[in-house]
Specification:
It is built from eight helices and two strands; from the N terminus they run H-H-E-H-E-H-H-H-H-H. It is mainly α.
Length: 175
């Protein structure tokens, strides 16, 4: 129901039905009170869908965490996303204590989701933590895949009932 409200608000603001990425940008923009999470600069609604202006960033880099959850996504200016690269926000800000402090205060005042706030403010993310998070996310994916496979077998009538396993799961990024 909340997703439908976001969609209706988007249509009201932009005048067309959004693609999923457009809706996600809009949702993050609203959740972040219209500000870039890293520069803490205002993001103009009129430019929100302009290529390269505002981008969805994985707070803990996806390649290092395999975390594609909403709690790991922020809307940032394109230039900030490119400059941050494959780093966490703390690694990105580096030794710029003034910028980190400004960012930290903004996050504490504006990000209500505790999981997202913790990711944004995380100062340590070492190789051991990366591997643990990847293992957890891969395990969750395996569990969900097995559950969905069983659900399909139980609720879909397949033509060839002699086939031992009518649902085939394959390894890969898209399960």
């Amino acid at each position: 129901q909340l997703k439908e409200q976001w969609r209706n608000d988007f249509i009201s603001d932009f005048g067309f039905n959004p693609k999923s990425e457009d809706l996600l940008k809009y949702r993050l923009w609203r959740e972040q009170s219209n500000f870039c999470a890293y520069s803490v600069e205002y993001l103009e609604r009129s430019r929100l869908l302009e290529p390269g202006y505002a981008e969805i960033d994985h707070i803990l880099p996806y390649s290092r965490s395999l975390d594609d959850s909403m709690a790991n996504k922020a809307l940032v200016k394109g230039v900030e996303n490119r400059n941050k690269g494959n780093r966490t926000p703390f690694e990105y800000f580096g030794s710029d204590e003034v910028r980190w402090h400004r960012f930290e205060e903004w996050v504490k005042a504006n990000i209500r989701n505790a999981a997202k706030r913790n990711r944004l403010l995380r100062e340590n993310y070492n190789a051991k933590e990366e591997e643990e998070m990847k293992a957890r996310n891969l395990n969750d994916t395996r569990y969900i895949s097995r559950y969905l496979s069983q659900l399909l077998k139980e609720h879909i009538a397949f033509n060839n009932t002699d086939q031992k396993n009518p649902v085939l799961m394959v390894n890969g990024q898209m399960t």
